[in-house]
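hiii, so i know i said id send this last week but things got crazy w the move. better late than never?? heres the sequnce for the chain we talked about at the cafe, plus the structure i predicted for it. fair warning i was half asleep when i ran it
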Amino acid sequence: MFSTPKSLQRRTGPFGVKRLEYLKQLLNEYEHTSTNNENKLQLLANFANFSYDPINYIYLRQLNIIDLFLDCLQMHTDDDFVHYALAGLCNMSADKINNQLILEKNPTILICLIKYLFSNRFDIVINSMLTLMFLCDYNEQIKNELRQRIEIRQCLEKYSQSKDIRLSNMAKLFLQDYFS
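okay and structure toks below
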């Protein structure tokens, strides 16, 4: 459920922790939890959850959380880190400003997302697919690049025949909207 400034005020009260301050605390904890991957993973999951609500976008941009998500994709091979980083990017890439920032901050993100499109893990595949779709929505060059990659079309066609209806429908939608 999306928040409004008024609903946040009502829930936290006049003396409650402000959203930006709370996110700063989480980021500080993430940055200073150097050896405990379980804690880092939980904090990354929190950021992915906060990235679901557009009211948080401005705060997440101020704190460079997009960079955090992108760094996790490049530095971690652990599927759980990849999952939460992709979930966060997916959530944020639905917004035009965030979409542009993702492409500016990591011009090679397309290569990374394509790699994860072929993952064996369902949630990684879906988040990769959705992020690619959102990037195509705001960037014709990305859409054209994907259309030229035969392995992408073949992968999506394979997924469209999946017994998992969610994967099948998502792949069919991707093919219909971006490859036809």
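btw The chain has twelve helices and no strands. thought thatd interest u
miss u guys!!
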